[in-house]
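seq:
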Amino acid sequence: MLRLQQRAFFSFLADPFGRSARAIELDVDHIRIMRRGNLAKMPLQSMARAPSLRKGILGTALTIHSTDDPSVALKGAGHQDALDFSEAVRTAWTRVSLSVLENEKARLDRILAEVLSLAAPSRYPAACQIASLLHDARDLDAS
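struct:
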C-alpha cells in the first residue's frame, strides 16, 4: 500500500480551511481518501483520467478525477512524493482498465462483427437486430 500525505506546515498554508484530502492511499484496486477523520473509498474503475499534478510555492497539489464523485485534491505534498504516487496510481489504473477491457473482449468482438456485417449486408437486416445491437453498443459505451 502506497500513501501520500500533506506536509504539516505547508498543508496549513496551502489549504487553511481543510477542504482537501489529508492523505491518500493506493490499495490494490481502490484509493482510500482521508479527510478530517472521514475515510472514503474510490474504485480505480471510477477514475475518469490519470491523476494530475500542479506544482506551486507551497507544495504540489495532486488531483484525482472521478466519473462518479467530485474530484479529490491533496494540497501541500512534496513534489517527488506526489510524482511517485501519481505514477503508481496511473500504473494501477491502467492495469485495472486493461483487465476490464479484457473481460469485455468477447462482447466487443461480437459488436464489431455485427457492425461490420451491416457495412455490406447480404440481405436487409431486421429492425430488431439493429435495435439490440444499438442497445449493446450504448451499454458498452456507458460502461
